[in-house]
Amino acid sequence: MAALPLMKLIRLKGVPILQQLHLEERLLRTSPHNWCIINDGTNLPHIVMGISGKPAELLEINSVLRDKVPVIRRFSGGGTVIVDTGTIFVTFICNKDDVSEVQPYPRPIMSWSSLLYSKVFQGVGDFVLRENDYAFGNRKFGGNAQSITKNRWIHHTSFLWDYEINNMAYLKLPKRAPEYRLARNHLDFICCMKEYMPRTNFITRTVDALQGEFSVETTDLEAVESPPNTKFIHSSKILTERELEEAALG
Amino acid sequence: MALRVWASSAANALKLSPAAPFSLSRCFSSVLDGAKYATSHEWVKHEGSVATIGITDHAQDHLGEVVFVELPEPGAAVTQASGFGAVESVKATSDVNSPISGEVVEVNTKLTETPGLINSSPYADGWMIKVKPSNPSELESLMGPTEYTKFCEEEDAAH
Protein backbone atom coordinates (compact mmCIF):
# COMPACT_ATOMS: atom_id res chain seq x y z
CA MET A 1 0.00 0.00 0.00
CA ALA A 2 1.45 3.37 -1.08
CA ALA A 3 2.33 5.80 1.69
CA LEU A 4 -0.03 8.72 2.13
CA PRO A 5 1.38 12.11 1.16
CA LEU A 6 2.52 14.28 4.04
CA MET A 7 0.37 17.22 5.14
CA LYS A 8 1.57 19.68 7.76
CA LEU A 9 -1.15 20.91 10.12
CA ILE A 10 -1.13 24.27 11.87
CA ARG A 11 -3.83 24.85 14.49
CA LEU A 12 -4.46 28.48 15.39
CA LYS A 13 -6.93 30.30 17.57
CA GLY A 14 -8.01 33.89 17.17
CA VAL A 15 -5.20 34.81 14.76
CA PRO A 16 -5.96 38.00 12.81
CA ILE A 17 -7.38 37.14 9.38
CA LEU A 18 -4.88 39.32 7.50
CA GLN A 19 -2.00 37.45 9.17
CA GLN A 20 -3.67 34.17 8.21
CA LEU A 21 -4.08 35.25 4.58
CA HIS A 22 -0.45 36.42 4.40
CA LEU A 23 0.72 33.08 5.79
CA GLU A 24 -1.45 31.14 3.33
CA GLU A 25 -0.31 33.03 0.25
CA ARG A 26 3.33 32.71 1.25
CA LEU A 27 2.99 28.97 1.84
CA LEU A 28 1.11 28.51 -1.44
CA ARG A 29 3.78 30.27 -3.46
CA THR A 30 7.03 29.44 -1.65
CA SER A 31 6.60 26.17 0.25
CA PRO A 32 6.94 22.70 -1.32
CA HIS A 33 4.73 21.05 1.33
CA ASN A 34 1.04 20.32 1.69
CA TRP A 35 -0.60 22.32 4.48
CA CYS A 36 -3.79 22.40 6.49
CA ILE A 37 -4.38 25.55 8.50
CA ILE A 38 -7.23 25.70 11.00
CA ASN A 39 -7.89 29.08 12.65
CA ASP A 40 -10.55 28.82 15.33
CA GLY A 41 -12.03 32.31 15.16
CA THR A 42 -10.37 35.58 14.29
CA ASN A 43 -9.85 38.30 16.87
CA LEU A 44 -11.78 41.24 15.42
CA PRO A 45 -14.59 41.59 12.88
CA HIS A 46 -13.28 42.11 9.35
CA ILE A 47 -14.91 42.21 5.94
CA VAL A 48 -13.01 40.07 3.41
CA MET A 49 -13.64 40.45 -0.32
CA GLY A 50 -12.32 38.30 -3.17
CA ILE A 51 -9.66 39.52 -5.58
CA SER A 52 -12.10 41.29 -7.88
CA GLY A 53 -14.43 42.60 -5.21
CA LYS A 54 -15.78 46.12 -5.76
CA PRO A 55 -16.67 47.78 -2.45
CA ALA A 56 -19.44 49.94 -3.95
CA GLU A 57 -21.24 46.84 -5.22
CA LEU A 58 -20.69 44.61 -2.22
CA LEU A 59 -20.71 46.81 0.87
CA GLU A 60 -22.82 49.40 2.65
CA ILE A 61 -19.75 51.63 2.58
CA ASN A 62 -21.12 54.48 4.69
CA SER A 63 -21.88 52.07 7.56
CA VAL A 64 -18.50 50.41 7.14
CA LEU A 65 -16.73 53.78 7.31
CA ARG A 66 -18.85 54.99 10.21
CA ASP A 67 -18.09 51.89 12.27
CA LYS A 68 -14.48 51.62 11.04
CA VAL A 69 -14.82 47.96 10.02
CA PRO A 70 -11.58 46.90 8.28
CA VAL A 71 -12.04 45.69 4.69
CA ILE A 72 -9.54 43.27 3.16
CA ARG A 73 -9.18 42.30 -0.50
CA ARG A 74 -7.72 38.80 -0.45
CA PHE A 75 -5.58 36.98 -2.99
CA SER A 76 -8.13 34.29 -3.85
CA GLY A 77 -11.34 34.48 -5.87
CA GLY A 78 -14.89 34.28 -4.65
CA GLY A 79 -17.26 36.42 -2.69
CA THR A 80 -17.48 38.61 0.39
CA VAL A 81 -17.74 37.53 4.01
CA ILE A 82 -17.70 39.23 7.38
CA VAL A 83 -15.60 37.24 9.80
CA ASP A 84 -15.12 37.38 13.56
CA THR A 85 -14.71 35.14 16.61
CA GLY A 86 -17.66 33.08 15.39
CA THR A 87 -15.87 32.06 12.17
CA ILE A 88 -13.82 28.88 11.86
CA PHE A 89 -11.31 28.89 9.00
CA VAL A 90 -10.05 25.69 7.36
CA THR A 91 -7.51 25.87 4.56
CA PHE A 92 -5.91 23.19 2.40
CA ILE A 93 -2.80 23.92 0.36
CA CYS A 94 -1.84 21.00 -1.88
CA ASN A 95 0.67 20.00 -4.50
CA LYS A 96 -1.42 18.86 -7.46
CA ASP A 97 0.75 15.76 -7.81
CA ASP A 98 -0.02 14.70 -4.22
CA VAL A 99 -3.75 14.82 -4.95
CA SER A 100 -3.33 13.52 -8.48
CA GLU A 101 -6.90 12.29 -8.81
CA VAL A 102 -8.04 15.93 -8.61
CA GLN A 103 -7.65 17.98 -11.78
CA PRO A 104 -6.31 21.40 -10.68
CA TYR A 105 -9.38 23.39 -11.68
CA PRO A 106 -12.06 25.00 -9.49
CA ARG A 107 -14.84 22.45 -9.81
CA PRO A 108 -12.81 19.26 -9.27
CA ILE A 109 -11.12 20.86 -6.24
CA MET A 110 -14.50 21.92 -4.85
CA SER A 111 -15.83 18.41 -5.40
CA TRP A 112 -12.84 16.85 -3.62
CA SER A 113 -13.33 19.16 -0.64
CA SER A 114 -17.03 18.33 -0.42
CA LEU A 115 -16.21 14.61 -0.27
CA LEU A 116 -13.85 15.27 2.61
CA TYR A 117 -16.41 17.34 4.48
CA SER A 118 -19.16 14.81 3.83
CA LYS A 119 -17.14 12.53 6.13
CA VAL A 120 -16.93 15.32 8.71
CA PHE A 121 -20.69 15.87 8.67
CA GLN A 122 -21.76 12.26 8.28
CA GLY A 123 -24.92 11.74 10.28
CA VAL A 124 -25.17 15.44 11.06
CA GLY A 125 -27.71 17.57 9.27
CA ASP A 126 -28.24 17.47 5.55
CA PHE A 127 -24.74 18.45 4.37
CA VAL A 128 -24.51 19.25 0.69
CA LEU A 129 -22.30 21.18 -1.71
CA ARG A 130 -24.70 23.68 -3.30
CA GLU A 131 -22.97 25.19 -6.35
CA ASN A 132 -19.86 26.44 -4.53
CA ASP A 133 -21.15 26.68 -0.96
CA TYR A 134 -21.38 24.18 1.86
CA ALA A 135 -24.97 24.05 3.06
CA PHE A 136 -27.26 22.21 5.38
CA GLY A 137 -30.30 21.79 3.19
CA ASN A 138 -30.54 25.06 1.33
CA ARG A 139 -28.89 27.21 3.98
CA LYS A 140 -25.23 28.13 3.55
CA PHE A 141 -22.83 27.73 6.44
CA GLY A 142 -19.50 27.66 4.62
CA GLY A 143 -18.09 29.87 1.88
CA ASN A 144 -15.21 28.75 -0.31
CA ALA A 145 -12.47 30.34 -2.35
CA GLN A 146 -9.43 29.08 -4.21
CA SER A 147 -6.23 30.13 -5.83
CA ILE A 148 -4.55 27.88 -8.36
CA THR A 149 -0.92 28.12 -9.45
CA LYS A 150 0.94 25.97 -11.96
CA ASN A 151 1.62 23.06 -9.60
CA ARG A 152 -0.26 23.86 -6.38
CA TRP A 153 -3.63 25.03 -5.21
CA ILE A 154 -5.29 26.42 -2.13
CA HIS A 155 -8.87 25.84 -1.11
CA HIS A 156 -9.97 27.84 1.91
CA THR A 157 -13.27 27.98 3.69
CA SER A 158 -14.83 30.28 6.24
CA PHE A 159 -17.32 28.33 8.33
CA LEU A 160 -20.12 30.20 10.08
CA TRP A 161 -20.02 28.78 13.56
CA ASP A 162 -22.06 31.73 14.75
CA TYR A 163 -22.53 35.28 13.62
CA GLU A 164 -23.64 38.71 14.77
CA ILE A 165 -26.90 39.64 13.06
CA ASN A 166 -25.91 43.31 13.03
CA ASN A 167 -22.70 42.55 11.11
CA MET A 168 -24.63 41.15 8.16
CA ALA A 169 -26.03 44.63 7.59
CA TYR A 170 -22.62 45.75 6.27
CA LEU A 171 -23.01 43.45 3.24
CA LYS A 172 -25.22 44.17 0.24
CA LEU A 173 -27.03 41.43 -1.64
CA PRO A 174 -24.38 40.51 -4.23
CA LYS A 175 -25.12 40.87 -7.95
CA ARG A 176 -23.46 37.52 -8.60
CA ALA A 177 -25.27 35.11 -6.32
CA PRO A 178 -25.81 31.36 -6.54
CA GLU A 179 -29.12 30.31 -8.05
CA TYR A 180 -30.18 28.44 -4.95
CA ARG A 181 -30.04 31.69 -2.98
CA LEU A 182 -33.30 32.74 -4.69
CA ALA A 183 -32.83 36.39 -3.71
CA ARG A 184 -33.05 35.56 0.01
CA ASN A 185 -31.54 38.12 2.35
CA HIS A 186 -28.54 37.09 4.45
CA LEU A 187 -30.48 35.95 7.49
CA ASP A 188 -32.77 33.68 5.44
CA PHE A 189 -29.88 32.33 3.40
CA ILE A 190 -27.32 31.33 6.03
CA CYS A 191 -27.32 29.13 9.11
CA CYS A 192 -25.00 28.52 12.04
CA MET A 193 -22.92 25.40 12.52
CA LYS A 194 -23.44 25.64 16.26
CA GLU A 195 -26.95 24.28 15.73
CA TYR A 196 -25.42 21.08 14.36
CA MET A 197 -22.12 20.25 16.03
CA PRO A 198 -19.94 21.34 18.97
CA ARG A 199 -17.04 23.52 17.86
CA THR A 200 -14.25 21.21 18.99
CA ASN A 201 -16.01 18.21 17.43
CA PHE A 202 -15.94 19.89 14.03
CA ILE A 203 -12.22 20.54 14.24
CA THR A 204 -11.48 17.00 15.50
CA ARG A 205 -13.58 15.43 12.79
CA THR A 206 -11.93 17.56 10.11
CA VAL A 207 -8.47 16.41 11.20
CA ASP A 208 -9.73 12.80 11.32
CA ALA A 209 -11.07 13.09 7.76
CA LEU A 210 -7.76 14.53 6.63
CA GLN A 211 -5.90 11.58 8.13
CA GLY A 212 -7.79 9.32 5.76
CA GLU A 213 -6.01 10.97 2.82
CA PHE A 214 -2.77 12.36 4.21
CA SER A 215 -0.12 11.58 6.78
CA VAL A 216 -0.77 14.55 9.07
CA GLU A 217 2.08 16.13 11.00
CA THR A 218 1.29 18.95 13.41
CA THR A 219 3.58 21.97 13.46
CA ASP A 220 3.30 25.39 15.06
CA LEU A 221 3.06 28.90 13.68
CA GLU A 222 6.37 29.99 15.14
CA ALA A 223 8.22 27.25 13.27
CA VAL A 224 6.62 28.38 10.02
CA GLU A 225 7.06 32.13 10.48
CA SER A 226 10.69 32.07 11.68
CA PRO A 227 12.80 33.52 10.26
CA PRO A 228 10.40 36.07 8.75
CA ASN A 229 10.36 36.04 4.94
CA THR A 230 10.56 39.73 4.22
CA LYS A 231 11.06 39.24 0.46
CA PHE A 232 7.62 37.83 -0.25
CA ILE A 233 5.11 40.43 -1.45
CA HIS A 234 1.60 39.70 -0.25
CA SER A 235 -1.43 40.45 -2.40
CA SER A 236 -4.02 40.54 0.40
CA LYS A 237 -4.37 44.10 1.65
CA ILE A 238 -6.54 46.21 3.90
CA LEU A 239 -8.30 48.91 1.89
CA THR A 240 -7.54 52.41 3.11
CA GLU A 241 -10.24 54.79 4.32
CA ARG A 242 -9.51 56.92 1.24
CA GLU A 243 -10.05 53.95 -1.10
CA LEU A 244 -13.39 53.23 0.55
CA GLU A 245 -14.44 56.89 0.41
CA GLU A 246 -13.55 57.06 -3.29
CA ALA A 247 -15.53 53.87 -3.90
CA ALA A 248 -18.53 55.37 -2.12
CA LEU A 249 -18.40 58.40 -4.41
CA GLY A 250 -18.50 56.04 -7.40
CA MET B 1 -20.03 16.86 -19.35
CA ALA B 2 -18.78 15.57 -22.74
CA LEU B 3 -21.87 16.88 -24.54
CA ARG B 4 -21.50 20.29 -22.93
CA VAL B 5 -17.81 20.43 -23.82
CA TRP B 6 -18.59 19.48 -27.43
CA ALA B 7 -21.36 22.06 -27.68
CA SER B 8 -19.16 24.74 -26.15
CA SER B 9 -16.20 24.12 -28.40
CA ALA B 10 -18.35 23.62 -31.50
CA ALA B 11 -19.98 26.96 -30.82
CA ASN B 12 -16.55 28.53 -30.41
CA ALA B 13 -15.35 26.97 -33.65
CA LEU B 14 -18.38 28.06 -35.62
CA LYS B 15 -18.00 31.67 -34.55
CA LEU B 16 -14.54 31.82 -36.08
CA SER B 17 -13.87 32.96 -39.63
CA PRO B 18 -12.67 30.48 -42.27
CA ALA B 19 -9.42 32.48 -42.42
CA ALA B 20 -8.54 31.28 -38.91
CA PRO B 21 -7.88 27.56 -39.09
CA PHE B 22 -9.12 25.71 -36.06
CA SER B 23 -9.34 22.03 -35.42
CA LEU B 24 -11.72 20.06 -33.29
CA SER B 25 -9.84 17.41 -31.43
CA ARG B 26 -11.15 14.13 -30.16
CA CYS B 27 -11.12 15.58 -26.64
CA PHE B 28 -13.64 18.09 -28.02
CA SER B 29 -11.62 21.20 -27.18
CA SER B 30 -10.45 23.21 -30.18
CA VAL B 31 -6.86 24.07 -30.97
CA LEU B 32 -5.41 26.85 -33.10
CA ASP B 33 -3.36 25.62 -36.04
CA GLY B 34 -0.05 27.43 -36.26
CA ALA B 35 0.13 28.05 -32.52
CA LYS B 36 2.33 26.39 -29.94
CA TYR B 37 1.17 25.21 -26.54
CA ALA B 38 2.45 25.00 -22.97
CA THR B 39 1.64 22.15 -20.60
CA SER B 40 -0.04 24.76 -18.40
CA HIS B 41 -2.59 25.31 -21.20
CA GLU B 42 -1.53 28.63 -22.68
CA TRP B 43 -1.10 29.16 -26.44
CA VAL B 44 1.31 31.40 -28.32
CA LYS B 45 1.25 32.39 -31.99
CA HIS B 46 4.38 34.05 -33.34
CA GLU B 47 3.78 36.28 -36.35
CA GLY B 48 6.54 38.63 -37.46
CA SER B 49 8.14 40.34 -34.49
CA VAL B 50 5.21 39.81 -32.12
CA ALA B 51 3.79 36.77 -30.37
CA THR B 52 0.18 36.67 -29.17
CA ILE B 53 -0.64 34.73 -26.02
CA GLY B 54 -3.82 33.48 -24.40
CA ILE B 55 -5.29 30.45 -22.66
CA THR B 56 -6.59 27.47 -24.60
CA ASP B 57 -10.12 26.29 -25.21
CA HIS B 58 -9.39 23.32 -22.94
CA ALA B 59 -8.39 25.68 -20.14
CA GLN B 60 -11.35 28.03 -20.48
CA ASP B 61 -13.75 25.11 -20.51
CA HIS B 62 -12.29 23.61 -17.34
CA LEU B 63 -12.06 26.96 -15.58
CA GLY B 64 -15.68 27.95 -16.14
CA GLU B 65 -17.03 31.44 -16.69
CA VAL B 66 -14.22 33.97 -16.42
CA VAL B 67 -15.36 37.03 -14.46
CA PHE B 68 -12.13 38.95 -13.95
CA VAL B 69 -8.75 39.15 -15.65
CA GLU B 70 -5.52 40.55 -14.24
CA LEU B 71 -2.97 41.56 -16.87
CA PRO B 72 0.48 43.17 -16.79
CA GLU B 73 1.27 46.64 -18.07
CA PRO B 74 2.87 47.15 -21.48
CA GLY B 75 6.61 47.23 -21.00
CA ALA B 76 6.59 44.50 -18.36
CA ALA B 77 8.93 41.54 -18.78
CA VAL B 78 7.55 38.02 -18.99
CA THR B 79 9.55 34.83 -18.45
CA GLN B 80 8.87 31.43 -19.95
CA ALA B 81 6.80 29.24 -17.58
CA SER B 82 6.30 32.06 -15.06
CA GLY B 83 3.05 33.81 -14.24
CA PHE B 84 2.15 37.09 -15.91
CA GLY B 85 -1.43 37.45 -14.82
CA ALA B 86 -4.47 35.67 -13.51
CA VAL B 87 -8.08 34.92 -14.31
CA GLU B 88 -10.94 34.55 -11.83
CA SER B 89 -13.63 31.97 -12.48
CA VAL B 90 -16.11 30.22 -10.20
CA LYS B 91 -14.47 31.00 -6.85
CA ALA B 92 -10.85 30.70 -7.95
CA THR B 93 -8.01 32.84 -9.17
CA SER B 94 -5.82 30.87 -11.56
CA ASP B 95 -2.35 31.94 -12.63
CA VAL B 96 -1.71 32.40 -16.33
CA ASN B 97 1.86 31.56 -17.32
CA SER B 98 3.79 32.86 -20.29
CA PRO B 99 4.87 30.21 -22.83
CA ILE B 100 7.83 32.40 -23.84
CA SER B 101 10.08 35.16 -22.51
CA GLY B 102 9.98 38.71 -23.74
CA GLU B 103 8.53 42.17 -23.31
CA VAL B 104 4.81 42.91 -23.23
CA VAL B 105 3.99 45.29 -26.08
CA GLU B 106 0.21 45.25 -25.88
CA VAL B 107 -2.51 43.94 -23.55
CA ASN B 108 -6.11 43.19 -24.45
CA THR B 109 -7.93 45.98 -22.62
CA LYS B 110 -11.32 44.63 -23.79
CA LEU B 111 -10.94 41.88 -21.18
CA THR B 112 -11.47 44.41 -18.38
CA GLU B 113 -15.06 45.06 -19.42
CA THR B 114 -15.70 41.71 -21.12
CA PRO B 115 -13.67 38.97 -19.43
CA GLY B 116 -16.02 36.38 -20.95
CA LEU B 117 -14.26 36.84 -24.30
CA ILE B 118 -11.77 34.33 -22.94
CA ASN B 119 -14.57 31.75 -22.81
CA SER B 120 -16.33 32.65 -26.06
CA SER B 121 -13.24 33.28 -28.19
CA PRO B 122 -10.07 31.99 -26.50
CA TYR B 123 -7.96 32.10 -29.67
CA ALA B 124 -9.25 35.31 -31.22
CA ASP B 125 -11.03 38.10 -29.30
CA GLY B 126 -9.95 36.55 -25.96
CA TRP B 127 -6.20 36.98 -26.56
CA MET B 128 -4.46 38.28 -23.44
CA ILE B 129 -1.07 39.82 -24.24
CA LYS B 130 1.23 40.47 -27.17
CA VAL B 131 4.92 39.98 -26.52
CA LYS B 132 8.15 40.82 -28.32
CA PRO B 133 10.02 37.52 -27.83
CA SER B 134 13.51 37.79 -26.34
CA ASN B 135 14.43 34.22 -27.28
CA PRO B 136 12.34 32.84 -30.18
CA SER B 137 14.06 29.44 -29.86
CA GLU B 138 11.91 28.87 -26.74
CA LEU B 139 9.03 28.15 -29.12
CA GLU B 140 10.76 24.90 -30.11
CA SER B 141 10.28 23.53 -26.59
CA LEU B 142 6.50 23.93 -26.80
CA MET B 143 3.91 21.48 -28.16
CA GLY B 144 2.31 21.71 -31.57
CA PRO B 145 -1.48 21.39 -32.02
CA THR B 146 -1.50 17.62 -32.47
CA GLU B 147 0.80 16.95 -29.53
CA TYR B 148 -1.22 19.34 -27.33
CA THR B 149 -4.48 17.67 -28.31
CA LYS B 150 -3.04 14.31 -27.24
CA PHE B 151 -1.75 15.91 -24.02
CA CYS B 152 -5.27 17.15 -23.18
CA GLU B 153 -6.82 13.76 -23.91
CA GLU B 154 -4.32 12.01 -21.66
CA GLU B 155 -4.76 14.56 -18.89
CA ASP B 156 -8.56 14.28 -18.97
CA ALA B 157 -8.43 10.49 -19.14
CA ALA B 158 -6.21 10.37 -16.07
CA HIS B 159 -8.89 12.09 -13.94
Notable traits:
heterodimer; A: alpha+beta; four-stranded mixed beta sheet; 30% helix; 28% strand; B: 159 residues; alpha+beta; OB fold (Dihydrolipoamide Acetyltransferase, E2P); three-stranded antiparallel beta sheet; 26% helix; globular
Structure, explained:
- With 250 residues, chain A is α+β, with helices and mostly antiparallel strands.
- Chain A is built from nine helices and twelve strands.
- In chain A, helix 4 (106-120) crosses helix 7.
- Chain A is globular and about 60 Å long.
- Chain A starts with 5 loop residues before the first strand and ends with a helix.
- By secondary structure, chain B is an alpha+beta fold.
- Chain B has five helices and eleven strands; from the N terminus they run αβββββαβββββααβα.
- Chain B has helices at residues 2-15, 57-63, 110-113, 117-120, 145-157, and strands spanning 22-24, 30-32, 36-37, 42-47, 50-55, 66-70, 77-78, 83-89, 92-97, 102-107, 129-133.
- In chain B, the strands form three sheets. In chain B, strands 3-4-5-11-10-7 form a six-stranded antiparallel sheet. Chain B has a three-stranded antiparallel sheet with strand order 6-8-9.
- The longest helix of chain B is centred in the N-terminal third of the chain and has 14 residues, at 2-15.
- The model of chain B is unreliable at 1-20 (pLDDT under 50).
- The A-B interface holds A 50-52, 75-79, 100-103, 105-110, 132, 144-150, 153, 176 and B 40, 62-64, 67-68, 70, 81, 83, 86, 88-95, 97, 155-156, 158-159.
